[in-house]
Design a protein that fits this description.
This protein is an alpha+beta fold. It is built from nine helices and 13 strands. It folds into three domains: 113 residues, Acyl-CoA dehydrogenase/oxidase, N-terminal domain (Butyryl-Coa Dehydrogenase, subunit A, domain 1); 146 residues, Beta Barrel (Butyryl-CoA Dehydrogenase, subunit A, domain 2), CATH 2.40.110.10; 76 residues, Butyryl-CoA Dehydrogenase, subunit A, domain 3, CATH 1.20.140. 41% of the residues lie in helices and 18% in strands. It binds flavin-adenine dinucleotide (FAD).
């Protein structure tokens, strides 16, 4: 194996200087999915994917939606999906690719994550064959822009305590999706303020008077032709955020909205026409965490995207620190580069070291995720 670093005499003053084998370091840092990452970077170097500063929030949102369509056409976005549905069964490679999208515009990465990593993935992992056949294609191709409606105003981390209900009505074989009070409004949902025409809505499943815990339902929310909410659905725009303004985050509420029984994503829990509940997992706690576990890719990819954001910031800061000169400290003629000042080193180098550590730790996380999801 090539050594990462070696020492050799500095040609100018004879002092030893570290030499880094940049090509090898890049090879190691890019990890197992280096070819996927390189291909993504090449694609995302195209200015059509880049963030344009100075756009209004509305313009930025529309630009990012257009970029999602470009990704569908050119971006190899279906890697994580099963081969028989047009994907590649490549879970780690898919996340590695999405993590790189941040280099073009973080809003694009998050909106892509909502569409494919959350909305389509929930249909894939929580649904069964009937849902895959009827609903997945629209989500995968972006024909149906979707939301993932889990968080509520009152409960974010504590998903088990959400208050939206899905009460089964055996008379009509429908679930009635309902938001009982303001704190149960779905909150901070990507795509919900404007673009989503459907949502995977998480709600407490109630049948025969018994609450069986949180389950997911496929719920159409807007008329795709007019963009207007369907009867019983209300929403609000979360408005300007501290960042990610190309994503239309919003709130949703449901007033006794009826969906057919078959639109319960029923991989881990089902309701028969007469209202009888069954599940392959007897323990409600285990069932809940199994369901949430299938959606962990969103969190894994955020870790990778955050690491990439830190890398980009440090490339700028370290390059600047290595080139910018201020004050002639020890010499009457030569000005000193910023990175020769101890204070500047103390600011940047620990963060640089931490980011290397993050990159290697994330690679291990991604490998573990890939192993679990590839069975
Ligand atoms: C940009 C963005 C996009 C989002 N998109 C979506 C989306 O598409 N769909 C969706 O459903 N949701 C979405 N969310 C919501 C997100 O999932 C929630 O913000 C998240 O689950 C945390 O919930 P919360 O904001 O209510 O924070 P809280 O749960 O109130 O937590 C507040 C703080 O307390 C800490 N905390 C909470 N419980 C504990 C504990 N037991 N021990 C220690 N610390 C604790 C948390 O870590 C956090 O720091 C989005 C959020 C953001 C910021």
């Amino acid at each position: 194996m090539t050594a990462l670093t070696e020492r050799r005499p500095d040609s100018r003053d004879g002092a030893p200087a570290a030499v880094v084998d940049v090509a090898h370091l890049e090879h190691v840092l890019l990890g197992r999915w280096r070819d996927v990452r390189r291909a993504a970077r090449e694609l995302l170097a195209d200015p059509r994917f880049h963030k344009v500063e100075g756009l209004s929030s509305a313009e930025h949102r529309e630009r990012v939606l257009e970029q999602l369509r470009l990704l569908v056409a050119e971006g190899d976005v279906l890697r994580a999906f099963p081969a028989e549905l047009g994907g590649a069964d490549d879970h780690g490679g898919s996340l590695a690719r999405f993590e790189e999208v941040l280099t073009a515009d973080p809003s694009l990465q998050i909106k892509a994550g909502v569409q494919w990593g959350l909305f389509a993935s929930a249909i894939l992992h929580l649904g069964t064959e009937d849902h895959h056949r009827r609903l997945l294609r629209g989500a995968m191709t972006l024909e149906v822009p979707g939301s993932f409606a889990m968080t509520e105003i009152g409960h974010g981390s504590d998903v088990a305590s959400i208050a939206t209900t899905a009460t089964y009505d055996p008379e009509t074989e429908e679930f009635v999706i309902h938001t009982p009070y303001r704190a149960a409004w779905k909150e901070y949902l990507g795509n919900a303020a404007k673009h989503a025409t459907a949502a995977v809505v998480f709600a407490q499943l109630v049948t025969k008077g018994v609450n069986h815990g949180v389950h997911a339902f496929y719920v159409p929310i807007r008329d795709p032709r007019t963009g207007e909410f369907l009867p019983g659905v209300t929403g609000e725009d979360d408005g300007l955020k501290g960042g990610l303004n190309g994503v239309d985050n919003g709130r949703l509420a449901f007033d006794h909205v009826r969906v057919p029984r078959r639109d319960l994503l029923n991989r881990y829990g089902d309701v028969a026409p007469d209202g009888t509940y069954t599940s392959p997992i007897a323990s409600p706690g285990r069932r809940f965490f199994t369901m949430l576990g299938t959606l962990v890719q969103g969190r894994v990819s955020l870790d990778g995207a955050a690491t990439n954001a830190a890398k980009l910031a440090l490339v700028i800061a370290v390059t600047y620190g290595n080139q910018r000169r201020q004050f002639t400290a020890a010499s009457p003629t030569d000005e000193v580069v910023l990175l020769d000042y101890a204070e500047h080193q103390r600011r940047l180098l620990p963060r640089l070291a931490q980011t290397y550590a993050h990159a290697f730790a994330h690679e291990r996380l991604l490998e573990a995720f890939h192993g679990v999801f590839s069975g």
